[in-house]
């Protein structure tokens, strides 16, 4: 019995846990074709297994644009976070990248948002350092809400709240993820 408890603990201890205080997903909304408004989400949780499989959960209520009313409108109107409160990111990285030198890789992931799953490839640097692994974008990925089934009506309703100005459905997205044992 004690041996099985030790084995289970050892197996769990070899996995990495996402450090939400050092991790974020960032994006920028674009309105009037030229006005860029940065945003980030720091309410992340997840794990990276020793075999390279990972899963990350993003709580959309953690959107921060620096303007509370904009945060609320993005949550309630665009993302409909009462119905779809989280975004899920899953995938697998070559386990060989979890040790050794930092490397740039194209990381294919499955993103589930608004009830739909799409494949997205993030260009990232994987940097192992002792009991920590950092995964960070070296270039943004452009993602469209409509690609995930977010209705155009949500974007139109959001636009109405700010004087019917045009708002792009597509945003550049970057990520910084810090995992620790």
By DSSP, the count of extended strands is: 12
Mean pLDDT rating: 90
Q: Distance between termini?
A: 25 Å
Main beta-sheet strand count, sense and barrel state: 8 strands, antiparallel, barrel
User: In the CATH hierarchy, what is the superfamily?
Assistant: Lipid/polyisoprenoid-binding, YceI-like
Given the helix and strand composition, which structural class is it? alpha+beta
Helix fraction by DSSP (H/I, runs of at least 4): 10-25%
CATH architecture: Beta Barrel
* Rg computed from alpha carbons, rounded to a whole number of angstroms: 18 Å
The topology string of helices and strands comes to HEEEEEEHEEEEEHE
The share of residues in extended strands comes to over 45%
> What global shape is seen?
elongated
Organism: Vibrio fluvialis PG41
Protein name: Lipid/polyisoprenoid-binding YceI-like domain-containing protein
List the helices and strands and how they pair.
Blueprint: H1 2-13, E1 16-18, E2 24-31, E3 35-41, E4 44-48, E5 53-59, E6 63-64, H2 68-78, E7 86-92, E8 103-113, E9 116-129, E10 132-137, E11 141-144, H3 152-160, E12 170-180
Antiparallel strand pairs: 1-4, 1-12, 2-3, 2-12, 3-6, 4-5, 5-7, 7-8, 8-9, 9-10, 10-12, 11-12
């Amino acid at each position: 019995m004690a041996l099985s408890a030790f084995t289970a603990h050892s197996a769990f201890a070899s996995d990495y846990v996402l450090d939400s205080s050092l991790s974020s997903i960032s994006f920028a909304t674009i309105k009037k074709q030229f006005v860029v408004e940065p945003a980030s989400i720091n309410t992340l949780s997840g794990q990276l297994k020793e075999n390279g499989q990972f899963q990350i959960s993003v709580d959309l209520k953690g959107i921060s644009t620096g303007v509370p009313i904009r945060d609320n409108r993005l949550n309630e109107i665009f993302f409909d976070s009462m119905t779809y409160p989280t975004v899920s990111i899953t995938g697998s990285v070559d386990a060989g990248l979890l040790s050794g030198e930092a490397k740039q890789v194209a990381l294919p992931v499955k993103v589930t948002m608004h009830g739909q799953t799409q494949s997205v490839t993030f260009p990232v640097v994987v940097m192992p350092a002792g009991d920590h692994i950092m995964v960070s974008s070296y270039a943004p990925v452009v993602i469209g809400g409509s690609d995930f089934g977010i209705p155009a009506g949500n974007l139109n309703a959001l636009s109405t709240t700010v004087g019917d100005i045009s708002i792009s459905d597509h945003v550049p997205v970057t990520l910084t993820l810090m995992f620790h044992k």
